[in-house]
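Late entry, evening session. Most of the bench is empty. Finally got around to the prediction I had been postponing all week. Sequence below, unchanged from the version circulated by S.P.
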Amino acid sequence: MIEPKELIKKIKTGDRKSLARAITLVESTRQDHQTQSKLILDQLKHSSGNSLKIGLTGTPGVGKSTFIETFGLQLINKRKKVAVLAIDPSSATTGGSILGDKTRMELLSKESNAFIRATPNKGSLGGVAKRTREAITLCEAAGYEIILVETVGVGQSETLVSEMTDIFCLLIAPAGGDELQGVKRGIMEMSDIILVNKADGELKIVAKQTSTQYLNALNLFRHRKYDPPNFPKVMTISSLNADGLEQVWSTIQELVSWRKQKGYFNDIRKNQKIASFNRELNNIFQERIVGSTKIISEINSLESKIKLGIITPDAAAEIIIKKMLR
């Protein structure tokens, strides 16, 4: 493993191998790797914050990988450096990625101005991995101007990505009205742009109908103060044919520009830092519990008492918290 100082130097030059190694350090649970990663992140924190971070979510089969590849290539043609952080479901036996998004973005992965990292979520909730935010920081330090974060896409708890990105896009497949019932209100309320994908061929008319249904649904929601009057937007696109993707980029730029002018852009980022702080506190508490044989022993003892009805789960949790705060 290269020394942290050498990694920092190479990351700043945009070296992709060094960036990948640094992300591996950040994701590792080994104590020596954690020590090194904290040093690297501390040195690079002032080099971050200049990129545009775009979160992408949607159910499996909606075409997220195809959209990212086509959209990423479009951005590279505009002379942008693009990083993709794709969060994959984990194998229950090995903990590794199941889908391997990088293999499905063959053209984008060949571009010198693109960086693709597929990371297993390892059971982390919210559609992202435990250290996605740190990986974003490293990509920013390496000079990537646009960072696309693709969630696992296995349910409706994918909203955590909206707390670490500037723009949150929800991809939808063309479907009948019943499909709208399956999309939870929470994920729609957090979406800045809803993209109805696969608007080509026989599905083009269905896609337009689906777009209208989602637009009507959005009209029932309370207007968000950090949105212009015409947002959130619903757009029909075809990732396969690249139809509408130029308009997607224009729409993203329009929203970012308006939020910056009104001061909302930085306000949102500040609130995201507080949310990150709270999540890190939870991570530290969990690590302390797992790393303490005394607390684990106490938990096992309390679990036996809970099963016997001697103590309630709430009371047992209070006991553990008091022991941790001593």
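Two things to note before I forget:
The first helix runs from residue 4 to 12.
The mean pLDDT is 83.
Will write this up properly tomorrow.
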